[in-house]
Amino acid sequence: MTTTQSQTSKPHLVIIGSGWAGFYLAENINLSSYNVTLISPRRTSAYTPLLASAAVGLFNFYLAEEPVRSASRCDLNFVKANVLSIDFTDKTCQCTPAFEEDPKLEKIQFDIAYDYLVIAPGCMPNTFGTPGVDEYAIFIKNVSDAMRVRKTLFDLLEKASLPCTSAERAKELLHIAIVGGGPTGIELTAELDDLCQNELSKLYPRIAKYVTISIYDVAPHILSAYDAKLHDYATSQLKARNVDVAPNTHIERVDEDALYIKDKGRVPYGMILWATGNKNVPLIETVDVKINEKGLKRILMDDKLRVFKKPDTTTSTSGSDVWDSVFSLGDAADIEGQSLPTTAEVAVQKARYLVENFNALASATGTAATSAFAKPFTYSQKQLVSYIGHHDGVIAGKGPNDPGWTGRSAWLAWRSGSLIWNRNWRSRVVIVITWALNRVFGTEMARM
Ligand SMILES: Cc1cc2nc3c(=O)[nH]c(=O)nc-3n(C[C@H](O)[C@H](O)[C@H](O)COP(=O)(O)OP(=O)(O)OC[C@H]3O[C@@H](n4cnc5c(N)ncnc54)[C@H](O)[C@@H]3O)c2cc1C
Predict the structure, then answer these.
(1) CATH number of 2-125+278-371
(2) Is residue 393 lining ligand 1, measured as CB closer than 6 Å?
(3) For residue 398, is pLDDT > 80?
(4) Per-residue model confidence as pLDDT tens digits over 325-367
(5) What local confidence, expressed as pLDDT, does residue 160 receive?
(6) For 93-96, which contacts have Cβ atoms below 8 Å and span 24 or more sequence positions?
(7) Domain coordinates in residue numbering, the chain
(8) Is 350 in the pocket of ligand 1 (CB under 6 A)?
């Protein structure tokens, strides 16, 4: 096993994960003050709110992600690896190269030493142990998943168009099942429905009428984070466009071409998309830290995002000690007693807090240095916005007396988010140009 250490006199900041949290930190930390190493199996960071739009061809896939390596920050050190475990006493991360197509590399292990560590490995999709989901469903986490949605959809349309395909079989092939009625599932439904109603009816006039979209959720409502008036509105609008909205639906298993619903039985599908929430990544099981064991397992931190040690049940210590120079961010972590949702909004605000405090720590001298990390992290809640298709959206109210709003202005607020989420100015300009071109000439779907 080899050990990699910082080669400069600057403190070595190691970040685990290149998602919203880790990437924001790596992009904004002062590289003249810190020697920064980002460890992740992915060399890009996905703009997850843009994935559904990219999947249906509203803009090119490359606009929905950002490469970790960039010419403007070539001092940032990137290691394409998975962290297997962390030794908080020796201050090292045990890593293995992450190359799915070259598994023999996974036998190699190496250590990376840190002075400061930020743990941001995110979460993975939760299948709730439903048999067949891992094998047959598509999860939407990265651009490669969005590409798979687009390819699968077009393959199904071509299979359904074959002269040898019966109308009955075409209907089965063109049944798109979306599992999970939260914002991700609903936005996928909305974008796919728009695509079917607009572009596909022109490209596939003979078979477009066979496309059906079902949205399944075990809960009694879709968009259950919104108040009753808004989730009822979303349900009625989707139903009016012939989307099969099926709450109170328990999917028991999935096989190659059908899902099995409790009390209903076999329902054939052509493509199944799974968006039912998060579970912890394997690293969370290995680290010697305090974990929230209820529901989603998350690393617990104090209000300065410092990671708590695992409580020692053999002694009378309170378990409130934190590990030296270890912080955590994003979906994988939560502040003890102040639980926040697993969203990009929360991940970025926490990453911004660390950037400000790490940069203050580096630039301050003497007593000024002690002002870094003096104030706790505070979260500023943004409004919850979801697209429900057909240029319509829902926006949650700001408090009990604010009913929120719906309609075209809600859609515009959601759509403008595509520009706010994307942090690259060049990509923003290309997105605006693509929207204008789509409006005049239709989307680029036919070319994909
Ligand atoms: C389709 C979709 C749409 C969404 N839309 C919105 C939205 O509109 N608004 C919003 O606020 N939120 C949205 N979210 C949620 C948001 O994407 C997450 O909250 C956010 O990605 C969390 O950021 P993160 O950095 O904690 O984790 P992630 O972005 O998941 O990144 C984690 C990173 O860590 C890496 N990693 C994992 N394990 C290891 C390991 N052992 N070693 C090294 N690296 C590791 C992963 O490969 C990944 O690069 C959406 C999510 C999805 C999937």
Answers:
(1) 3.50.50.100
(2) no
(3) no
(4) 999 999 999 999 999 999 999 999 999 999 999 999 988 665 5
(5) 98
(6) 93/14, 93/16, 93/39, 93/117, 95/39
(7) 2-125+278-371, 133-276+383-447
(8) no
